[in-house]
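Appendix B. Worked example

We walk through a single record from start to finish. Start with the input: the chain for Dihydrodipicolinate synthase, Penicillium salamii, length 326.
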Amino acid sequence: MTSTIASKSTPIPPGIYCPVISLYKATARQEVDYDASYKFFSHLIRGGVDGLVLAGTTAEAVLLSAEERKELVKVARKAAVDLGRPEFPIVAGISGQSTNESIRLAEDALEAGASFGLLLPPSYWAKAVTKDVILGFYRDVADSTTLPIVIYSFPAMCNGIDMNSDTMSELAQHPNIVGVKLTCGNAGKVTRLTEEYSHEQFAVYAGSSDWLIPCLAGGGGGCVTGIANVFPKCVAHLYALWNQGKTKEARELQGLVAQAEKACKEGIAPTKFGAAHFAGPSAGITDARAFWPRKPYTPCSEEKSTWVVKVMQHLESLEQSLPDAI
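Next comes the structure step. The output line below is what the pipeline stores for this chain.
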């Protein structure tokens, strides 16, 4: 490592993080179903994921109110405490288009029990988002809260705003910016950043599990993956195999996970349908409508649903064979 900066006071633990889907009541207004959410959070923690991410893209964060975001963090923290994991990492999405809004969301998340905050760059007026704007935005938010900040790089959701590794490296030097989630899928950013920084200085995560092993091989700390909503044990097992030095088995499972995850690449509705079909019964959530996207968005068509089952079902038996982590 070339950087001599101090390790962060609260580094984000390595591992598999699940960006948890939001569950709704089967009503006209689709209020958030906090009871179902508690069951699902508990299911994921028992399944062996290393952290939960709330109010991110997979959670339909732009469709959630600030109060709903805050309450979901409280429910997730309660689920972790009830399972004997009071310090379980909970990452809360705090992305706002203004610095002021992001600081307010960070304050809410911290008060509700979040461990870290996940923050997209501003993007509303993309042409006005210069490097200096990005640096100022992240530094101002990080200066204004004790909630450790994780950069969220997802150009497809940000009007094409794509932070390069040099910009991230400058932000990494801030004492309250602890890592990055690379949903941009750029493995080069992994190797450049991990050459400069240790995990404790600045952690680097893949934004999906279909390139978990390439990220780990490049020095990354894990991944944040939507398919963990569907098969949490499988993804946790893949991570464990790699860490145990069982590279052949890990590579084989990596391919199977990647094949299944292509359904998640098709959008929120297929991800939520997969979770309803494969994980809902185990989590104790039997009403498939809880997994529907929030209006105006619609659930999968019958044709798409059939395809999701087809591309994911090869992991079902492995998921069922693996023991609970708790």
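Two observations about the output. The first strand starts at residue 15 and ends at 19. The mean pLDDT is 97.
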